[in-house]
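Record 1 of the preview.
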Amino acid sequence: MNKWVSKAALVTFIAIFGFTLVVRQVFASTKVTPSNLGIWSYQVSNTGSVVFDNTAKVGLGSVRLFSGSQGNSFAAITSTNFVGTDLNQITKFDFSTFGKTGTPNSPKVDLDINTQCGPDRLTFKPENQNAGAQQNVWQDWVGLNGVWASSLFPNSFNSGTISQYSAFIQQPQACNSSNATIINRPDSSGGLRFDIGPGSSSDVFDGNVDNFTIGISGSDTTYDFDPDSATNTMSQQYYSDTNFQTPQGSPSALPGNVLNKNWGTNPPASGVGPDNWSARWEGTYDFISQVYRLTANSNGTDSVKIYVDGNIILNKPGAGAAQALFDARNSVGVHTVRIDYVHNTGSARVAANFWDRTKCYDMDANNVINSTDLQQDSFHFGATGMSPWDMPDSQGNFNNNVNATDLLNLSQKFGKTCGPNF
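->
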């Protein structure tokens, strides 16, 4: 049969029987990273955190939502980009979640909407789906076929699909609402949210989200959440309170992985007083297959915490030095490191860093030991002045003058090997 005759027959068949061909327009995946969030933003409370790690469904990783040590905290990645969209216009809503060990549930989804009865919130919880929420495995969800619950009608609509909800609110016993449109939250924190928590203080909420595809009237966009490539630079942000709630100024860059600050009794930045403030440093680093040593030191009643990918690795309350180890041998690649410092009163001083524990005490990681490294070593390990690091030479003599030879001896004493330029 001639191909043109075949096409004509197909058109005639469609015209007679009333079939309609729907063409779905599929867009390329949109990469979302910490340095390029696009339509997305974060919202956290208390110990909650949003980080991008290398737990990957697709691409290099995903976004992790973590309550931290306090289960009454929450963490969310949100968007207002879909405000004004009618629920009936949503033609696809697929995403993947990864629940961590000990987590009561995986990340959930909230849609804030407006009906003629007033504002409502539809919530999709993995533990309420037929498959249930599992741990340490990626689960794929088809949101349009999943069950959602309404906060406005908790008794009459607590398990149904989005299309069933649209039909439900049109009923007289509901509210005769002809439509349901996505709106922003009253606190402007998004009309579409992937979030965890809050719950009881003893809960631990921890999970990842990736590969989110939303279709609006047949046009699909996929969001692939990935960590940045390593920047080896920390962003530096000061807060005028001790809860990291009131940032002052814009974040600035602090190169490398060494933090050594001494403000004395002076305020650290404009808008921050000399007492009762906090500071946060955060960056992405490329970890090799090695165990890393993390160190911290501070004065008085101040505290320092170091997180890797949102997990607290070192917690040092009060004065003095502390160390902890992070094993990257099974998680080689980009990791997010965050250092939180809280200053109460008195003199403010903090030092913190991390390095491959098999290396010398080369604190700025350039494989060249110098007096700056020695000063930082001294402070990290709680030494006063420089004399504690005056190590005996090969004849067992002290010269009361700390130098590179002392550092070599110090390194050897603790079983370290040195870089090629030592």
